[in-house]
Amino acid sequence: MTIYLTRAVIIITFLAFVVSGQNNQQSQSEKPNTASISGKITINGDPAVGVQVVLTSQGSNDPSTRSTTDADGRYKMESLPSGYYHVEVMSPGYVAQVQGPSLQEEINLQEGKKLEGIDFALVKGGVITGRISDPDDNPLTGLVPDVRRLDEKGQPVPYSLPLITEFDTDDRGIYRIYGLPSGRYIIGFGFDKAPTTRFEQAEQSGTRHYSLTFYPGVTDQSQAKVIEITPGSEITGIDLRFGAKENTFKIAGIMVDAKTSAPSANVIFGYGKLSGGTYEFFEVTSRTDTKGRFKIEDLRPGKYFLKVMDETRPIFSDAVEVDLTNGDVEGLEVKVHAASIISGVVVSDGVPDGDLSAALQKITLYTTADDQSDRMFNFAEAEFRNDHSFEMKDVRPGKEIFNITSSQSGSASMWIEYIEIPNVGRIYSANGPNSENVGARSTAGPVEIAEGQNLSGVRIVVGMATAVIRGQVKFEGGQLPATGHVETRAVLVKTNNQSENAYASAIVDPDGKFVITGLTSGDYQLNIYVFSGVEQPSGPRTKEYVGQNIGHGIQNVSVQNGTTTQVTVTVKLTTPGKP
User: Fold this and answer.
1) Domain for residue 357, yes or no?
2) Which is it for the CA torsion 533, 535, 538, 539, positive or negative?
3) 3-state DSSP call for residue 359?
4) Alpha-carbon distance 309 to 283, whole Å?
């Protein structure tokens, strides 16, 4: 079996399933290492000698094991646990000999399986190079190319280059993009004015001083000159000289203590774009000088906001909105307030310390404003210690809600029973595990917090869900394909809850095994879904899929807190495209 890649850097990584909900899997250390993967790599039909192949486990960017091709271009990885993998060959600059939809081949490896013939046929990729300069022909450094691949109708298709600085313009203004698959491209540099919800992403296309300009010097994408790339081709002289700079403006001012009006020195703050009343990400962070002054330059016309983002001390500011539509804004005053600190301990009756410690690693404890409109910037997260004590910094004054969020979608693996606050008393949660609005977030409050108040001795009493389902899926009508994008999920829906949303879920491994933990006592409907994905090309290192359901099984199951329930579910597989 020969696999044709769009780019010749092929990694073997576990499938990164995007599962809405809990991602329970059998630990790799618990699985026997009895599987293997092998294949051959060629370049222009000849064995690729000394090419490295890497194996990376799910959730990690660090290779678990490596293999190097021999004199015949062959590689082999042995003693592998079952799992979902991708294959990547470390051979930058090479692409597929024959264009296909896959950027990376995905492997679904079962226990004891010896998967052979995972081959890759490569050729040298194409190159585009040129020089970018300002109106006076001075080189522009550090610009990021905007490369767009065209389909048969001449329309751009989703495509993205690897996020590496090697493709940026150097100190001479020269750029060189290598490893391009055969095809038709257009290329541009500069700031893309197109609407975007990611301010930072728009900025990285180039410099804010110039509008996005395509080769050979046009701002209309339809007028851009098409560049033809063939295997091993190098297209030179793709130069751009920008026209006049666009107007840019600045924001300047001072940050002062809200109570004393004294300058706030060395305060870290951030700023971002304001679009349609929505705050769009922080672009960068900066710092006031020793006299509390700040200045932000080279901003394009538009509306912005800035606020304190200093995690080194308990301070905050409101988001200050600034309109740069018509010119600079100077003399801006930002008031810096003292934030509160809340500290205490989390306890759970009858739960061993070790179990509580493990559970605290899977939840987030934080406060938010009771006022929904003020929640974007009013968020203080707790830091836990080994003794289950916690501390929340940067708590803003006002009515605050205590929140616990579980990593488990729709379920309350941990929930607030009540909170005890010195001189305030006991505050019970309105959404424990048996309430109608049970969800992944449990809340209690509001609690009135004064500016600069340090609230200590808080005791948060939590309940915990400790039921476990351990399951085995048996497939009828065929086997899961050994290659290609396949997802098998176990999804729980609580049968006594009016909501049809998933209560919890887990990935089913290629051997059909799964574990779902952190469940409350009750009756559930267990659904097993099998999806086969058809890959859509989107770039040399990114993958998008259109999923198709090729199997579904249902079984009812009842669980009790503190117990493990074993289940077996039968799923009949169907051929993709058929009922």
Assistant:
1) yes
2) positive
3) helix
4) 12
Give one DSSP letter per residue of 316-339, joined into a string.
E-PPEEEE-SSS-EEEEEEEEEEP
Q: For the chain, how many structural domains are there in total?
A: 4
Domain that holds residue 172: 126-241
Asked whether residue 547 is assigned to any structural domain, the reply reads yes
Residues in the chain: 579
Q: Is 73 part of a structural domain of the chain?
A: yes
Query: Using one digit for the tens of pLDDT, what is the confidence trace for 287-314?
Result: 999 999 999 988 888 899 999 988 888 8
pLDDT over 90 at 245, yes or no: no
The domain that holds 397 is classified in CATH as 2.60.40.1120
Pairing type for strands 119-124 and 303-308 reads: unpaired
pLDDT band of residue 434 (cuts 50, 70, 90) is low
Which tokens sit at 285? 């962070």
Same domain membership, residue 71 and residue 106: yes
Q: Characterize the bridge pairing of strands 114-115 and 35-43.
A: parallel
Cα 170 from Cα 212, distance rounded (Å): 19
Look at residues 221, 241, 261 and tell me which one is the last residue of a structural domain: 241
Least confident of 311-320, 371-380, 521-530: 371-380
> Which stretches within 253-381 are classed as H helix?
353-360
467: three-class secondary structure by DSSP: strand
Q: Are 462 and 348 in contact (CB under 8 A)?
A: yes
- Cβ count near 142 (within 10 Å): 12
Q: Which of 219, 241, 263 is the last residue of a domain?
A: 241
Token match 């042995």: residue? 78
Structure tokens at 83: 């799992």
Nearest to 366 by CA among 379, 376, 384, 347: 379
Span 374-379, mean pLDDT?
68
Q: What is the pLDDT of residue 192?
A: 55
Same domain membership, residue 237 and residue 177: yes
Q: Are residues 206 and 236 in the same domain?
A: yes
Report how far residue 486's alpha carbon sits from residue 464's, in angstroms, rounded to the nearest whole number. Answer: 33
103 and 171 belong to one structural domain: no
Q: Is 361 left (phi over 0), alpha (psi -120 to 50) or beta?
A: alpha
Per-residue pLDDT tens over the stretch 103-130: 467 788 888 999 999 888 888 989 999 9
- DSSP states of 9-36: B-EEE------SS--B---GGGS---EE
Which token pair is 322? 């600034």
Q: Name, in order, each residue with C-beta under 8 angstroms of 409's C-beta and a sequence gap of 6 or more.
A: 20, 21, 22, 440, 501, 502, 503, 504, 505
| DSSP SS3 for 167 | helix
The DSSP 8-state label assigned to residue 222 in this structure reads: G
